[in-house]
């Protein structure tokens, strides 16, 4: 197999037949930022009457964009789906694996096959403002559900990609290619927001790690410890002891997060004329991290959609936050750093978008699906003022 193009549709068809027992009837390449993705219509070799639609994703393990979380991806998806949460699920090969690995002279590849979620991404739909705000609320509510279910996932996650640039705490790394941004005004805005992120968001996390909050900051990184139980007690409507209540006000809680819960990955379905949450795709960035970072990422991308349809960005952010807090109220510290979590992701997304477009100009339209609206978000936040914008979120 090393003599053929592993990512070609012909070879994908062969892999599906030999490894999964799927006979392909149609295969179409999908747009992607980094990976090679296909939509495939197929049926089982043993049952031609069972038509299926699946998504094939192929990762280059030697690429800078690769994040070595493949086992976590599948454990997280299965954990969520087993609890009734709507998300993609991995198919197993005939031998019971959830990936097909391939080595060539040029690179090492991983191929996965995922179930298809019916519906359309929020980014691709034309919403009225009222319907969009409804989807913001439902997306926030379901993001909170995902975070809470992530607290119950028993998985020991180790990765060599601790500096992965899409992790909320690594946003400074994500903006190192700022020279790719041609507009000096936007460069200035990015530097300003990243300075606030460094002085506020990162400072708080650093203080927590160093134990400046009465020597008990290690809670922020415990899985199955007090942070988990404080959430569990809250869910079951049990009164929190004063200590745990204090901790909820002080700390940024951690857990397994999606890390790309964006308008491009959230699926919406129309049920009897009303839009509903249809599920979440693309777990390539999932990891164990700060919940507020995951929330900030989601809000950031929903703000770009708000700009695209002419919806007030603070109304959109507020709706998503209300949905989130209906299931998982934020701590005082999380509220204080949320705007920095939002703005840092917008900065990272725009810088990386500019850099990727310079490398692949033929794909720039797809790369800037969301990023093209980010400068307008910057301008709106500047006009509102950071302090006032932070207050308007709640």
Would you kindly provide a brief summary of this structure?
This protein is α+β, with helices and mostly antiparallel strands and 394 residues long. 46% of the residues lie in helices and 17% in strands.
What's the SSE blueprint?
Blueprint lengths: L8 H12 L1 E9 L5 E9 L2 E14 L9 H13 L17 E4 L4 E8 L4 E2 L7 H22 L20 H4 L9 H27 L15 H10 L6 H9 L3 E4 L8 E6 L2 E7 L6 E4 H19 L3 H13 L6 H28 L4 H8 L2 H11 L1 H7 L2
Antiparallel strand pairs: 1-2, 2-3, 3-5, 4-5, 6-8, 7-10, 8-9
Helix pairs in contact: 3-8, 3-9, 5-10, 8-9, 8-10, 10-11
Output the helix-strand order: HEEEHEEEHHHHHEEEEHHHHHH
Helix content: 40-55%
Taking the alpha carbons of the first and last residues, their distance comes to 56 Å
Give start-end ranges of low-pLDDT stretches. 213-249
Q: Output mean pLDDT.
A: 85
What is the beta-strand fraction? 15-25%
What keyword list fits this structure?
5-stranded antiparallel sheet; 3-stranded antiparallel sheet; alpha+beta; Phosphorylase Kinase, domain 1; 10 strands; 394 residues
How is this structure best described in words?
With about 400 residues, this protein is α+β, with helices and mostly antiparallel strands. The chain folds into two domains: about 10-70 and about 90-115, Phosphorylase Kinase, domain 1 (2-Layer Sandwich), CATH 3.30.200; about 120-215 and about 255-390, Alpha-Beta Complex (Aminoglycoside 3'-phosphotransferase, Chain: A, domain 2). About 45% of the residues lie in helices and about 15% in strands. It has 13 helices and ten strands. The strands form three sheets. The protein has a five-stranded antiparallel β-sheet with strand order 1-2-3-5-4, with helices on one face. It has a three-stranded antiparallel β-sheet with strand order 6-8-9, covered by helices on one side. The longest helix has 28 residues, at about 330-360. The model is unreliable at about 215-250 (pLDDT under 50).
């Amino acid at each position: 197999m090393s003599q053929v193009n592993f990512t070609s549709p012909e070879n994908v068809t062969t892999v599906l037949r030999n490894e999964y027992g799927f006979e392909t009837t149609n295969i179409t390449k999908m747009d992607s930022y980094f990976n090679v993705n296909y939509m495939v219509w197929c049926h089982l070799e043993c049952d031609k009457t069972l038509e299926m639609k699946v998504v094939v994703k192929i990762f280059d393990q030697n690429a800078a964009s690769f994040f070595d979380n493949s086992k976590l991806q599948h454990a997280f998806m299965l954990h969520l789906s087993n609890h009734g949460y709507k998300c993609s699920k991995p198919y197993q090969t005939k031998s019971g694996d959830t990936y097909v690995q391939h080595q060539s002279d040029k690179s090492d590849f991983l191929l996965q096959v995922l179930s298809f979620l019916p519906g359309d991404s929020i980014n691709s739909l034309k919403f009225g403002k009222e319907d969009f705000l409804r989807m913001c609320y439902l997306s926030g509510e379901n993001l909170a559900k995902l975070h809470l279910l992530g607290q119950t996932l028993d998985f020991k996650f180790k990765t060599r990609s601790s500096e992965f640039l899409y992790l909320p705490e690594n946003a400074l790394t994500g903006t190192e290619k700022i020279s790719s941004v041609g507009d000096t005004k936007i460069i200035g805005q990015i530097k300003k927001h990243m300075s606030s992120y460094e002085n506020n968001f990162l400072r708080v996390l650093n203080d927590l790690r160093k134990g400046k909050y009465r020597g008990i900051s290690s809670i922020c990184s415990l899985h199955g410890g007090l942070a988990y139980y404080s959430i569990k007690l809250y869910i079951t409507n049990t009164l929190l002891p004063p200590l745990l209540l204090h901790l909820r006000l002080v700390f940024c809680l951690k857990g397994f997060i999606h890390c790309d819960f964006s308008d491009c990955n959230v699926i919406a379905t129309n049920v009897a004329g009303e839009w509903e949450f249809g599920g979440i795709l693309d777990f390539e960035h999932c990891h164990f991290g700060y919940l507020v970072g995951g929330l900030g990422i989601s809000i950031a991308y929903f703000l770009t959609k708000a700009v695209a349809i002419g919806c007030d960005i603070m109304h959109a952010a507020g709706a998503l936050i209300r949905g989130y807090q209906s299931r998982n109220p934020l701590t005082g510290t999380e509220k204080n750093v949320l705007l920095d979590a939002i703005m840092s992701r917008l900065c990272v997304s725009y810088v990386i978008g500019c850099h990727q477009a310079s490398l692949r100009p033929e794909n720039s339209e797809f790369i800037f699906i969301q990023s093209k609206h980010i400068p307008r978000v910057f301008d709106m936040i500047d006009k509102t003022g950071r302090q006032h914008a932070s207050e308007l979120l709640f």
